[in-house]
Amino acid sequence: EQITPTSTPTQKRKETKRKSNLFTPGKKDEDKNKSDRLGHGRAIPIKQGFLYKKGTNSINRDWKKKYAVLLDDGRIIYHPSFHDYENDSHGKEIILQRTTIKIPGSNKPRVALRSSSNDNKLNDVTSTDSISTTAGKIETPNAKKRHRRLQQSNTPNSTNNSTTSKSTSNTNGGDDDGDENVFIIVSLDKQWFFEAQSNEERDEWVQAIEQQILFSLQNIESSKAARAGKTGGTTIADSASVQAIKHIPGNGFCADCDQLNPTWASLNLGALICMDCASLHRNLGTHLSRVRSLELDEWPPELVQVMRSIGNKLANTIWEVNIKNRVKPQPNASSSERERWIRDKYEQKLFVAPLHILPNQARQTLIESITKEDLYTIILLLAHRKVTIDEINSSLLHLAAMQGNVTILQLLLWFGADPFITDTNGRTPLQCANGDCIRILQTLTNNQTDFQQQQLKQTIISPQQSTLSRQQRPPASSPAPPYDKLPSTVI
């Protein structure tokens, strides 16, 4: 039989067959890779699931659904969707090491009393039935808030049914009052608001997160002990030093709200404060308050000496005297109440003890106080700013270094004194120093040398860099003094 052209295989038919052979096994590989992606080569999830997160942007503070994962290395990572979690993309992490967790309406961090079962340690992420819906209940006063979430969840970007089920349930009603299922992760300078599907789920998250915070702190203690053994214990404060600071008169309570057992410190105030007040102190700026964790940060001997020399009782006899009709915040005070009190106390100096000297006597009074090592008068003079930086630089810093009193030297340096200024004889404070003041000033000198070498490297411009436009070049300005860039451990 004669073969017609129509029965002859054409090039087009062969191409179609090759494409089928090419892509069919690829789809199987893709499915296999997709199943292998979950958790492969990544930290082990302790708990995971959908949570609402409140936006921190001042313009957009809406609640948006996120897929959150609590990991065994002390982190929470939240993704815009479960698909992003699968691909390990667009995730934002919270390091729990220096955070605490709170529930709105509680005065202190809460630990769930109920122990969760092993079945609850890892949520089912493949079934949309894991997020239940409740219908037919009366709408709560927070319907507007829920309605906004529903609108967000129904946007074109929302393709997963599980992403919209909670918003639907909350719009129809529910037993939460808007904040009932919310928990807050708090660090020194930031807060993350999350909301779970129910009270039970919220408590599970709170308990799991608090356990990870505890594990992280235990790891820090182990690391600190190991490093202390290598360095001979000269850099990191041991438990005896920490306990000595805590037992200074007044240090059993926060200097600003009387919270029991504060674990944070303001170095240049010489006072212990609680974590809630510490976050507000950090907003004041380091010229007013240098915040440091008493238990998590490194504490060289000179900083321990400063804290032991002052303490809350002495600090408040200076900063908290003329309160008149004002009421000091209590441990359960709101953040706004604390902030108003702290700013009035340290920034506006409304409660500072009076200073009964004439303006032209300030410098001589400071000289006498340094000689007598009268900390109360020195701190009071600096609080009233009755002496200028120029007056301190004109041999007063040299006098403090010569006295060998670490606390006085540190207070003057934090006030803004220049550690490299020379006196009328051309000597620097280091050349006049005695005792532990030598080590402090020597460290500053070494760091200045490193800073100058770094600045020198930055001034070397390659031929390619020299062609940058004027808009791309940084504005001409004198570099900041090196001691302004050093950590508070040193200055």
Q: What are the key terms here?
A:
zinc-finger; seven-stranded antiparallel beta sheet; Serine Threonine Protein Phosphatase 5, Tetratricopeptide repeat; metal-binding; zinc; PH-domain like; disordered C terminus; alpha+beta; 10 strands; Annexin V, domain 1; Ankyrin_rpt-contain_sf; GTPase activator activity
Description:
The chain is of the alpha+beta class. It has three domains: 45-214, Pleckstrin-homology domain (PH domain)/Phosphotyrosine-binding domain (PTB) (PH-domain like, Roll); 237-347, Arf GTPase activating protein (Annexin V, domain 1, Orthogonal Bundle), CATH 1.10.220.150; 359-459 and 476-484, Alpha Horseshoe (Serine Threonine Protein Phosphatase 5, Tetratricopeptide repeat). The protein has 16 helices and ten strands. The protein has a seven-stranded antiparallel beta sheet. Strands 9-8-10 form a three-stranded antiparallel beta sheet. Helix 11 packs antiparallel against helix 12. The chain is elongated. The protein starts with 10 loop residues before the first helix and ends in a 32-residue tail after the last helix.
End-to-end CA span: 101 Å
Number of separate domains: 3
Number of E-state strands: 10
The first-level CATH class of the largest domain is given as Mainly Beta
What order do the strands of the largest sheet run in, or round the barrel if closed?
4-3-2-1-7-6-5
Question: What is the CATH topology of the largest domain?
Answer: PH-domain like
**Range of helix content:** 40-55%
- Major β-sheet profile: 7 strands, antiparallel
Rg for CA atoms: 31 Å
Stretches with pLDDT under 50, minimum 5 residues: 12-17, 19-25, 30-40, 108-144, 152-177, 231-235, 461-491
Structural classification: alpha+beta
- The CATH architecture term of the largest domain is Roll
CATH superfamily of the largest domain: Pleckstrin-homology domain (PH domain)/Phosphotyrosine-binding domain (PTB)
Proportion of residues in extended strands: 5-15%
Q: What integer is the average pLDDT?
A: 74
Taken in chain order, the helices and strands follow as HEEEHEEHHEEHHEEHEHHHHHHHHH
Number of helices: 16
- Shape from CA axes? elongated
